[in-house]
Design a protein that fits this description.
single chain; alpha/beta; FAD/NAD(P)-binding domain; Polyamine Oxidase, Chain A, domain 2; seven-stranded mixed β-sheet; five-stranded parallel β-sheet; globular; binds flavin-adenine dinucleotide
C-alpha cells in the first residue's frame, strides 16, 4: 500500500524533509498544508517594482556540508553569494570593522524562497497553500483538520514544521499520550521577537560593508543589511536597507503603529550608517515576527517518543539553532527518519 505522509507547514525544514522522503519513496503520497500563500516560512522574500528583498532570514550560511552540497550541486540555479563583509556597531552606534568570518552566505537572485521552491519542485508532493491546520488527532490513522473544518487523512505519519508554540497548539488532546507530551515540550521553547523595517531609497550609499550587527546587544537595532549586496535584488542606483530591531525593542513596540516604528528605525539607521538622508526613505515595508528565533531546542526524548507514534517534527527549534541551514539540515535528517519508518508500509 502507498505510504501517506501529511505535513503541516512549508518552511525550509519541511521542504528539505519532503525532498528526502520523495526521493527515498517515490511512490509515497505526500501532502503539505501551508497556511500562507507562499513557501519557505521565515526565510521570506517580497518583490516590488523590479526589486527583491528578504525580510526574514538574510541568507543561508555554508555551515553544514550536506546542506551546502545540496544547494551548490543540486539547487544552484539562481544561487548567488552575498557580497561584502559584516561589520559591527555598539550601544553608542559606533561602527567597527570585524566579527566577520570566511563563511560564504548564499541566497537566490529571485529571493531566498527559491530554496523551498526548488526543493518542493523536485518532488511529486502536493502543496496545499492557504490551508491553516487547526487540529491534529488520531482516529484510525493521523488526521488533520483545517480552519474551514475540512478533515484530511488518514495519514500513516505526520510531519510538523510550524514554530514550536504553533506546533504546541496543535498537539493538544490528540488521543496519543506521547504526542501530547511532545506538545508540552514544544510549548516550553521560548522565542525572541523581531520587528523588521524595510527602507527603500532612490540613491546609492557608499559604505564598505554588506551588513552591520550590534555586537553588545545594547542597541535598539540588532541588524542593518543592504539588499543591494545580493546579486539580482536591487537595480543600480538604489538602496534597500533591512533593519531588524532588537528583541526587547521589538517586543515592546510590537503593536505600535508601523509608521511610527519605521520612522524611529530609519532615524537609528541614519545615525549608525552616518548618512542623514536615510531618515527619509522613498518607500517602506515592515513585518513583525513574534516567533522569530527559538532560544533553545525542544527536548530530544519527547521528539523520539512521538516519532514512535509516527509524529515527527522538524525545523530550527528541533535542531536547537535559530538558523536557516540548521532548519534545512534538520529537515534532511528528519526526512531520512520518516522514509525509514514508512518504507515497507
Ligand atoms: C527576522 C529574522 C531574521 C533571520 N535571520 C537569519 C539569518 O540571517 N540567517 C539564518 O540562518 N537564519 C535567520 N533566521 C532564522 C531562519 O529564518 C529560520 O531558522 C528558518 O527559516 C526556520 O525554518 P523552519 O523550517 O524551522 O520553519 P518556518 O520557516 O517557521 O516555517 C514554518 C511554516 O509553517 C507554516 N505554518 C505555521 N503554522 C501553520 C499551520 N497551523 N498550518 C499550516 N501551516 C502553518 C508557516 O506559515 C511557515 O511557512 C531569521 C529569522 C527571522 C524571523
Amino acid at each position: 500500500m502507498t505510504a501517506r505522509l501529511g505535513t503541516v507547514g512549508a518552511g525550509a525544514g519541511a521542504a528539505a524533509a519532503t525532498y528526502v522522503v520523495d526521493h527515498a519513496l517515490p511512490d509515497a503520497d505526500l501532502t503539505v498544508f501551508e497556511k500562507s500563500r507562499g513557501v519557505c516560512g521565515r526565510a521570506a522574500a517580497r518583490r516590488r517594482n523590479g526589486l527583491v528583498y528578504e525580510y526574514g532570514a538574510n541568507y543561508l550560511t555554508d555551515d553544514d556540508d550536506r546542506v551546502n552540497n545540496l544547494v551548490t550541486e543540486e539547487f544552484d540555479d539562481g544561487l548567488v553569494e552575498v557580497n561584502g563583509p559584516i561589520w559591527t556597531f555598539d550601544a553608542a552606534g559606533t561602527v567597527a570593522e570585524g566579527r566577520d568570518s570566511d563563511k560564504r552566505r548564499w541566497t537566490y537572485a529571485d529571493g531566498i524562497t527559491r530554496l523551498a521552491k526548488h526543493l518542493f519542485g523536485a518532488t511529486g508532493a502536493t502543496v496545499e497553500r492557504t490551508t491553516r491546520i487547526v487540529d491534529v488527532h488520531h482516529d484510525g490513522g493521523w488526521r488533520l483538520t483545517d480552519a474551514n473544518e475540512s478533515t484530511h487523512g488518514p495519514f500513516d505519519a505526520l510531519l510538523l514544521n510550524p514554530p514550536a508554540p504553533q506546533t504546541a497548539a496543535l498537539l493538544d488532546e490528540t488521543g496519543i499520550e506521547a504526542v501530547d507530551q511532545l506538545g508540552n515540550a514544544a510549548a516550553a521553547v521560548d522565542y525572541r521577537t523581531v520587528w523588521t523595517a524595510v527602507l527603500g531609497y532612490d540613491f546609492e550609499i557608499d559604505v564598505p560593508y554588506y551588513a552591520l550587527v550590534n555586537a553588545d546587544k545594547e542597541h535598539a537595532v540588532g541588524w542593518i543589511g543592504r539588499e543591494e549586496c545580493k546579486p539580482g535584488h536591487v537595480p543600480d542606483g538604489e538602496t534597500v536597507l533591512v533593519v531588524q530591531a532588537s528583541p526587547d525593542w521589538s517586543t515592546e513596540r510590537y503593536d505600535d503603529p508601523p509608521e511610527q516604528n519605521i520612522a524611529v528605525l530609519a532615524q537609528h539607521a541614519a545615525e549608525i550608517v552616518g548618512d542623514e538622508r536615510l531618515t527619509d526613505p522613498d518607500w517602506t515595508d515592515h513585518q513583525g515576527w513574534r516567533y522569530a528565533l527559538p532560544e533553545a531546542g525542544v527536548r530530544a526524548d519527547a521528539v523520539r517518543a512521538a516519532a514512535q507514534k509516527d509524529v515527527y517534527v522538524t525545523g530550527d527549534w528541533v535542531a536547537g539553532e535559530a538558523r536557516l541551514h540548521a532548519a534545512v539540515r534538520n529537515g534532511l535528517g528528519t526526512g531520512d527518519a520518516v522514509a525509514a519508518a514508512l518504507r515497507g508500509r
